Amino acid sequence: MTALIQPVTPNASSLPETKEELRMIEKNVPKEWLTSLGGPDAPAATVEIALPHLRESSIVHFACHGTQDLENPVDTGLLLADGRLKLSKLMWNSSHQGQNMRMAFLSACETAKGDPTVPDEAMHLASTMLFLGFRGVVATMWTIKDYDGPTIVETFYRELFAGCNATAAPQSLPDLTKSARALHAAVTKLRADPKVPFHRWAPFVHYGL
Hints:
Elements: E1 2-5, H1 17-28, E2 35-37, H2 47-56, E3 59-63, E4 65-67, E5 77-80, E6 83-86, H3 87-92, E7 103-107, H4 125-132, E8 136-140, H5 149-160, H6 179-191, H7 198-201, E9 204-208
Parallel strand pairs: 1-2, 1-3, 3-7, 7-8
Antiparallel strand pairs: 4-5, 5-6, 8-9
Helix pairs in contact: 1-5, 5-6
């Protein structure tokens, strides 16, 4: 698994809670299976570094800014340390996709927004991840709050990696077909807080298996 966070992005607001997201991932995912980018003492989460990790990792988690470009959808992307990882770049690299790609978690704004004027032509980051070969994708339909990320992420990965063991033989791997159920548990926890309005828990969606 690779977790990429971008707490500080040029020309964009800071996302301090992405650090807490990474901490929640580290809490629930065996360290033997986890590579982090953008965190403390980790390499920067740049576009060129992110691409090979996309191909080689069974699970990728992005915690950063996301943007949907309605006028030029192929410019839709995730904002990383050195610029935007565009949808066009992802599609261009699709010929080099790996065999291990199983699940992508896009903890960023508007990663499944699309264009409401042409709902049958879904060109957004979530659908692109499916096109690349990921079997399941967690994404967002609109803007999300930075401080909600750790709550969703902690429950999601706790549910997904429950009972997993990276050191015993044979290894006990997570069943990624349960990722939709794990997201349901995470959203249910956020929704249970009476102070959390509809627009904060509703944007999280799951695509694929």
